[in-house]
Write a structure and sequence with these properties.
The chain has two domains: 49 residues, RecR Domain 1 (Helicase, Ruva Protein, domain 3, Orthogonal Bundle); 131 residues, 3-Layer(aba) Sandwich (Dna Topoisomerase Vi A Subunit, Chain: A, domain 2), CATH 3.40.1360.10. The chain is α/β, with parallel strands linked by helices and 209 residues long. It contains seven helices and seven strands. It is 41% helix and 13% strand. Strands 4-3-5-6-7 form a five-stranded mixed beta sheet. Strands 1-2 form a two-stranded antiparallel ribbon.
């Protein structure tokens, strides 16, 4: 794509680095920004810089936060005895949008995937186990995507938890969520029903870690 300005081309290339944005879409965004007032463009740039400089991760659950603890972990109205384990931020947001869950979360940052070279040590599983040692938790909800990798991760975490906390209740969201689907694309009614109808997470004796 030949553009009349190097500055414009650099701007297009910058937008095109964003996921799901091709060169044509990037050009359309650049042309849109060129039509805006300078203070609008400056405000956009400053908000991106503040996003990079001010956003951190919650030291407890690894949610996005502007403080040491995120708004969920620091809330006095949340049920701190209930932890919902999710793979990423988008899954947390999907569950929050149902307005049917009042516990806390733990973002592990992905799922175990030997094909992609992702093992348990690459995820925030140890920090979850440390939370269980230091907090009064009654139930752990495994809310990972219903895929082979998600199920493998749930099984691994459940095994690790049961070693040190054999009395811990471990549940999983009901299979109202289709196997192979992503939580972030599941409609809110289905996701809410899956949370409400969660089932005990069972480990066969011969499969225990």
């Amino acid at each position: 794509m030949k553009l009349p300005s190097t500055v414009m081309e650099n701007a297009v290339n910058s937008f095109a680095r964003l996921p799901g944005i091709g060169k044509k879409t990037a050009l359309r965004l650049v042309l849109h920004m060129m039509k805006q007032d300078k203070d609008v463009v400056q405000g956009f740039s400053e908000s991106m810089l503040r996003l990079k400089d001010s956003i951190h991760y919650c030291v407890k659950c690894h949610n996005i936060s502007e403080a040491e603890l995120c708004s969920i972990c620091s809330s006095g109205s949340r049920n701190k005895q209930l932890i919902c384990v999710v793979a990423g931020l988008r899954d947390l947001l999907a569950i929050e949008n149902t307005q049917q869950y009042n516990g806390t979360y733990h973002i592990i940052g992905g799922v175990i995937s030997p094909v992609e070279g992702i093992g348990p040590e690459a995820l925030q599983i140890d920090s979850l186990l440390n939370r269980l040692k230091n907090e009064d938790v009654n139930e752990l909800i495994m809310a990972l995507n219903p895929t082979i990798e998600g199920d493998t991760t749930s099984f691994y975490i459940a095994g690790q938890v049961k070693r040190s906390h054999p009395e811990m209740k471990i549940s999983t969201i009901a299979r109202g969520v289709a196997f192979g689907g992503d939580l972030e694309y599941t409609d809110e009614i289905t996701l809410a029903r899956s949370l409400a109808a969660r089932l005990p997470y069972r480990i066969n004796k011969e499969d225990e870690w």
